[in-house]
Design brief:
alpha/beta; eight-stranded parallel β-sheet; six-stranded antiparallel β-sheet; 23% strand; elongated
Length: 429
């Protein structure tokens, strides 16, 4: 499934629903209705897919899984998640889960057994363990963590029992109704594992969507019919905000051409990457930009780029948050977000989402048309031209013929006058 004509919305459930930062193992708290109660706002925003970050039983932040088969008790239970997915589907919104397959938390049942039984544990081969060493937790053995974080224990994916456990869980989630998975740290998952996962999901639900988190590496090597449909486009994320802050649009245009040009050397030509301006791991775009007037033209370009745009919850209201202030700053309760802020930005995003979903040319070939330090226009599918001006003075951008501006309905020929920090999406007439 390529998720073309799709606008995705990302929710970090533990933060969004106001869950406690640590799992106390107590009673189930039914909080997933916090998401369900706001489905109509998603429809108003014109999104048609939702990415839910980890919501399975974990010790703290969701990426330290305790139980792959249960909903985190701080959020609800199986009935709650089935009800939420059904409600999303009724609203025409597909649901993508966050699949964390590289590592688990220290309280994961199999690792807890190793801690208690050491050599005698039947699960000792589920992990990469050296019984001749020790860990920072003084376990009496050493194990491989995720990138030096010993609260996250690396799974031994070569072990068939581990594979069966994970794939049984995936089949259960598919039975709950999900339509796809975002694979955490996909850059560390071996290609053979991705192929096994693809076989598993295709057997259970043909057309199932798989998108991998790729912070670095060669994107095209993981996107294939027998592996992933898409990856996260961190390359353009970084060049996007950097280009706007430095008033140097050559930076983002170089990144787009390198990936998507209609030339044989383009690294991701014809691929549908997942594009974003921020997410649960990085500083909010409203905080990282040095001028908030850049938000509107940045989003106009984001929605016109090749790929699937993904909005992180709260950013449609101009939510702020810096990574250096910790996870809580990036993953607040939706109740702490001011849904009445920046109505113009939210209205623009709703309009851009509608255009993305209805204009098939936005899934066509990419071509650069015009470029200066502060003005850029690109063409999509030979029919739509997106233009932005990030200067504090007007700029005239040439157009190849007659067009209608999809944002305001105005007809223009041969050129369009963009105001300071202006933008346009124009369709050929």
């Amino acid at each position: 499934m390529d998720f073309k004509n799709t606008v995705m919305y990302q929710i970090y459930p533990l933060g969004y629903c106001g869950a406690e930062p640590n799992n106390d193992g107590g009673a189930v708290r039914h909080r997933l209705h916090t998401i369900a109660d706001r489905i109509e706002t998603l429809r108003d925003l014109n999104v048609n897919a939702v990415l839910l970050n980890p919501l399975l039983e974990s010790s703290a932040h969701g990426y330290d899984t305790i139980d792959f088969f249960s909903v985190d008790r701080r959020l609800g239970d199986e009935a709650d998640i089935r009800s939420l997915i059904a409600a999303m589907h009724e609203a025409g919104i597909r649901v993508v889960f966050d699949g964390v397959f590289h590592h688990v938390g220290r309280d994961f049942f199999a690792f807890r057994d190793v801690r208690e039984r050491l050599h005698e544990s039947a699960y000792r081969d589920w992990f990469i363990i050296d019984f001749g060493g020790n860990s920072p937790y003084n376990d009496g053995f050493h194990y491989q963590p995720w990138e030096g974080h010993y609260e996250l224990v690396k799974l031994n994916l070569d072990n068939p029992d581990v594979q069966n456990h994970l794939f049984d869980a995936v089949r259960k989630w598919i039975d709950w109704g999900i339509d796809g998975l975002r694979l955490d740290v996909a850059y560390l998952l071996p290609p053979w594992f991705l192929r096994l996962l693809r076989q598993t999901v295709e057997a259970a639900k043909p057309g199932f969507y798989l998108v991998g988190e790729m912070i670095h590496g060669e994107y095209g090597r993981r996107i294939a019919p027998d592996m992933l449909d898409s990856v996260t486009n961190y390359a353009c994320y970084k060049s996007l905000y950097s280009a706007f802050n430095s008033r140097n649009l050559f930076e983002i245009e170089h990144g787009l051409t390198r990936l998507f040009a209609a030339e044989p050397w383009a690294l991701c030509r014809g691929m549908n990457l997942l594009n974003f301006a921020d997410n649960h791991d990085v500083t909010r775009i409203a905080s990282i930009l040095n001028d908030r007037r850049l938000l509107a033209p940045l989003y106009a370009l984001l929605f016109a780029m090749p790929g699937t745009p993904c909005l992180y919850y709260g950013s449609e209201w101009g939510q702020v948050g810096r990574k250096e202030d910790g996870d809580a700053a990036l993953r607040p309760s939706v109740e702490r977000c001011d849904a009445s802020a920046s109505p113009e930005l939210r209205a623009l995003l709703s309009r851009l989402a509608h255009i993305k979903r209805t204009e098939s040319a936005l899934d066509g070939d990419y071509k650069k048309l015009y470029l200066t330090n502060t003005a850029l226009s690109i063409e999509r599918g030979g029919q739509i031209v997106a233009a932005v001006n990030i200067a504090d003075a007007p700029h005239t951008v040439p157009l190849p013929g007659a067009f209608k501006n999809l944002l305001d309905g105005a007809e223009v020929r041969d050129a369009i006058e963009l105001p300071p920090f202006g933008y346009a999406l124009c369709k050929r007439i």
